[in-house]
Amino acid sequence: MKLPELFEEKMRRLLGEDFEEYEKHLDDPAYYGIRVNTLKISVEDFLKICPFKVTKVPWTDNGFYVDREEKPSKHPYYHAGLYYIQEPSAMTPASYLPVEPGDRVLDLCGAPGGKSTELGAKLNGEGLLVSNDVSISRTKALIRNIEMFGIRNDMILCTEAKYLVPSMTGFFNKILIDAPCSGEGMFRKGNNEIKNWQQKGSEPYAKLQREIVDDAIKLLAPGGMLLYSTCTFSPEENEQVIEYLLEKNDDLSLVPMKMCEGFDHGHPEWTLTGREDIKQCIRLWPHKIKGEGHFLALLKKEDGPQPTFKYEKIKKVKLTPETEEFFKNCKMDIDWSHVREHQGKLFYLKEDIPEMKKVRVLRKGLYLGEMKKGRFEPSQSFAVALSADEYKPYLSFDINDENTIKYLKCETLDVDTATEGIHLIGTNEFPLGWAKIKKGRLKNKYSSSWRWL
Prior knowledge:
The structure is a single chain. The chain has a domain at 388-453: Archaeosine Trna-guanine Transglycosylase, Chain: A, domain 4, CATH 2.30.130. The chain contains 14 helices and 23 strands. It has helices at residues 5-15, 19-25, 43-49, 76-79, 92-96, 114-123, 136-148, 165-168, 191-200, 203-219, 239-248, 321-327, 380-385, 402-408, and strands at residues 33-36, 54-56, 63-66, 83-85, 104-107, 128-132, 154-157, 172-178, 220-230, 252-254, 264-265, 282-284, 294-301, 339-342, 345-348, 361-364, 366-372, 375-378, 394-397, 413-414, 421-427, 430-438, 441-444. Strands 5, 6, 7, 8, 9, 10, 11, 12, 13 and 16 form a 10-stranded mixed beta sheet that branches. A 5-stranded mixed beta sheet has the order 19-21-22-23-20. It is globular. Keywords: Cytoplasm, Methyltransferase, RNA-binding, S-adenosyl-L-methionine, Transferase.
């Protein structure tokens, strides 16, 4: 691969005698990975049914290398949300943020959802995940991935961090910022990444990153933790951003993180003040590990008084008779005082949220479905958020049954069942979507936007 001349000069300065090894690595095949969705299946159980040959990613408990030729996106288990396809070093940020069930978590730069889906799995349905991205086009992938993973306690926003500050200062006890960056670790993806670097370099990103972290720190609760990461190598976007934060905020300190084979520490000599605590950051170099590279820094805010909030009031929803009839078959525990209605569409989020102004909210919780004239249409996201025993009747196709793929292709099927009406459809014990069955004929309700292509 031909590197831009200025970039090559910079990397020679940073890497010294390691540069030749880095340059040689650029012509190697890229690594490909999947991360198991522990909301739906344990790692141990997934490995028992895994259709691919996989090897462990050493820095995360549920990440695995897989050959691209295995085509993991073309398998029913992917459509059931059992795993997320992710570059292995990009698994580190969500893995290294110590999220516990019950936390209030913010993924500030969340699209397309790789980090948010793992944070949501860590919460295990308890607490709140707020996934945000400033790009409305990018949030389409974010919404789909959150829905496919079956996350029930997520709110999805499209806004700048500064608009969250008035209502949510000190609200989150865990924040992840996988910051927009110059993407020097992504050069092997193609010429677009290189052209972007040649046009912009690091400076505009470093400025943006400082603006983002300034607002994020205000959103972090006393005693809370923030993980900052990028997929670039530039010290101006990495060590120097963390240096900026620490110099500006006396109540912040770096937290040591687990080192794995091939990991490098942060470099004080690449900062402006030579801070020794910068060594507690982590660098992943692509010639030292099996991945494209990353930078990580975990910070903690000092303990202090917890702020109070004015929470949003929820208007009681009046359900149609058809909706009430549908939910008689649903065993999912729903607190109806926390179900919101918008133009007939029902959303469930059991956690209270502060009142917000000037914030574009795309989802407030799990989209259950829509109350229409004479019927209730359950949503695709609701189907994959359920377990097989949370809705009856449930019709399962074996993973090797041709009807599984036909269903995912939105085809109409003939089925051997005397039970009629709305069914939850799945493969083995993993739900995929909905169907309406009448006289042995399955009318497919699988979302056309999720269709197997």
